[in-house]
């Protein structure tokens, strides 16, 4: 891992490497060009929206389904069926998910048929970002659901019994017992999901390719296009270094939390 990282960092300070026989050292010029590029700034905004909305939705939906599967309101057989259904999105690869939802959201697809409409979900500048975010939410919530379900099953029943004896309502038990017990798991998974989602590439590339007109352009697709569409490998390396720095910040907080937890 060290060798390619060092190479990419070195490329970011050079004139267009690979495409030029004798690239020259240009210092921070590549960083200035990237940071002042309007498309890069758009990609940052899209990535922030995509990541934050996805992580929040993953947490909320995953916790809701985990509590449903952990409750005694429904029978054991029904819980087993729901577990299979809810876990299905996590079993598919990004390629399968992208193809599946491209077919469902096609103007002639099932979604438009059910809604009796002809909306261009993945081609509309107003809807494309929301559509790919929804797809990512659908694909990622099972990870939270499984982890939180394991956490819920590890909470001692005595805590709930004591809270009930003290007259706590279901909402008060949730706030005072469930959430504090799940807090370490929630923080760990949220930080991991922030790292993973901010680097999502395959799902975006295979659904919208960053379009239309950059409305779904992410940092990952922006970097890919710089390298393999425009052949600006030094600028692509610079973008990759900036993404690496962002990932290192998130990883720092994750490791710090894990050490504090241990």
UniProtKB/TrEMBL annotation:
Membrane-spanning parts: 38-69, 81-104, 127-150, 191-213, 233-255
Lineage: superkingdom: Bacteria
Principal cellular location given in the protein's record: membrane
Membrane-topology annotation of the record: Multi-pass membrane protein
Domain ABC transmembrane type-1: 44-254
Gene3D superfamilies on file: MetI-like (1.10.3720.10)
Keyword Transmembrane helix on entry: yes
InterPro entries in the record: MetI-like, MetI-like_sf
Subcellular location: Cell membrane
Keywords: Cell membrane, Membrane, Transmembrane, Transmembrane helix, Transport
Keyword Transmembrane helix: yes
Homology family: Belongs to the binding-protein-dependent transport system permease family.
Protein name per UniProt: Sugar ABC transporter permease
Native source species: Labedella gwakjiensis
């Amino acid at each position: 891992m060290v060798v390619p990282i060092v190479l990419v960092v070195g490329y970011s300070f050079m004139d267009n490497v690979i495409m030029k026989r004798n690239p020259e050292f240009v210092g921070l010029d590549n960083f200035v060009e990237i940071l002042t590029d309007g498309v890069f700034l758009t990609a940052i905004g899209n990535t922030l929206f995509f990541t934050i909305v996805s992580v929040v939705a993953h947490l909320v939906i995953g916790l809701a389904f985990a509590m449903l599967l952990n409750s005694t309101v429904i029978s054991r057989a029904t819980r087993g069926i729901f577990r299979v259904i809810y876990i299905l999105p996590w079993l598919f690869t990004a390629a399968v998910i992208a193809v599946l939802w491209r077919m469902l959201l096609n103007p002639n697809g099932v979604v438009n048929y059910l809604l009796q409409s002809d909306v261009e979900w993945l081609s509309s500048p107003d809807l494309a970002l929301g559509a790919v975010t929804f797809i990512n939410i659908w694909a990622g919530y099972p990870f939270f659901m499984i982890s939180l379900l394991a956490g819920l099953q590890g909470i001692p029943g005595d805590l709930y019994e004591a809270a009930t004896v003290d007259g706590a309502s279901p909402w008060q038990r949730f706030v005072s017992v469930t959430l504090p017990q799940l807090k370490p798991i929630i923080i760990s998974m949220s930080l991991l999901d922030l790292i993973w989602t901010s680097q999502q590439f395959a799902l975006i590339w295979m659904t919208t390719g960053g379009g239309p007109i950059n409305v779904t352009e992410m940092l990952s697709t922006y970097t890919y296009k710089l390298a393999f569409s425009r052949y600006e490998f030094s600028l692509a390396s610079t973008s990759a270094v900036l993404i690496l720095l962002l990932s290192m910040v998130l990883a720092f907080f994750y490791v710090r939390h894990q050490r504090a937890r241990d």
